Amino acid sequence: MNSGQSISTVHYSLPTVYCPLLFAIVLTLNEEKHLADCLASLRWADEVVVFDSFSTDRTAEIARSFEVRFVQHRFANYAAQRNAALDAASEVSADWVLFVDADERVTAELADEVRGVIQKPGPVGWWVPRHNYIFGKLTLHAGWYPDYQMRLLKRAHAHYDPDRHVHELVRLDGAEGFLQNPLLHLNYETVPEFIVKQHAYTKYDAGILHAQGQRARPQNFLLQPLRQFCWRYVALGGWRDGWHGLRLSALMAYFQFVLYRNLRLLQDPKGASQNP
Q1: pLDDT tens, 39-77?
Q2: Would you kindly state where each structural domain of the chain is located, as residue ranges?
Q3: Global pTM?
Q4: DSSP per residue over 127-191, as a string?
Q5: What is the widest separation between alpha-carbon atoms in the chain?
Q6: Topology of 22-187 in CATH?
Q7: Strands (E), the chain
C-alpha cells in the first residue's frame, strides 16, 4: 500500500433494540414479615415500587433498605389501590407492570419468562399461575392450582374495574395470555388466619349476591355446602392431598353455609337470627 493512498472507512450503525421497562409493584400494609424476601425476588425488574397504605410497622424501613421507590397512598379498596398504582407507573413511563403481593415470590424461571414475553408483540395482559402454600403445605388440588391471577399488564392497555372492590377484575384493551411458571404464594399460614379471611370474603360475596337480587333459600344451607365439598374433594382431587385436602374441602364447604347465612342476614336482618 502506498503511503499516500487514502483509507476509506465505513461506519455501521447498529439497530437500536428497544427494551420495554418493567416495573414490579408491591401493595403493602404492615408487611414487615414478608416484604424483604419478596423484594429480594424482584431484583431483576427495572424498578420496584412499594405502594404502601400508610403502614405502622417496619414496612417503610425495609423498603428503603432495598432502595426501591416507596409511595404512600390512602387505601379505599383493592381495585382503587391498584388503579392508583398503575397511574403512578404511568408518571415514570413504565411500559409493563407486574403486580406481586408481599407474601408472594418470583422465581428465576418466572422472571425469565416475563422478560421474554414482554419483548414480543402479543397479549397485553398475562395470567400467572400460583403455587399456594396453605398451612405450610404446597397445595395442588381442591381448586388451589393453577389459581391463575392477571398480574402482568401492559400499563397503557389495562385498568381495574372500580366496582370490584375485592377479587379485583382487570379490564384489558387487547388480548390475554397464560404464563407457564408459577408465582410462589405463602397463603394462609394457620387455620385461624384462614377462618378470619374467609369470614371477610363471605360477607363481601354475600353483598354482591344480594345486590344481584339473589336470595337465600332453605335448601341452599344444605345443598350448596354439599356441592362445594364434592366439587373440591372429588372433582378437583382434594382427596389426593389426604387429610390436608379433606380439611380444606370441609372448610370451604362450611363457608358456603356462612355465605348463605350472611345473605339471609341481608334479606332479613331482624328475623335471620331465628333461622339457619
Answers
A1: 999 999 999 999 999 999 999 999 999 989 999 999 999
A2: 22-187, 191-274
A3: 0.85
A4: EE-EEEEETTEEE-STT-SS--EEEEEEGGGEEE-TT--SS--EEESS-EEE-SSPEEEEE--SH
A5: 109
A6: Spore Coat Polysaccharide Biosynthesis Protein SpsA; Chain A (3.90.550)
A7: 22-28, 47-52, 69-72, 96-99, 104-105, 125-128, 130-134, 137-139, 149-154, 158-160, 170-172, 176-178, 183-187
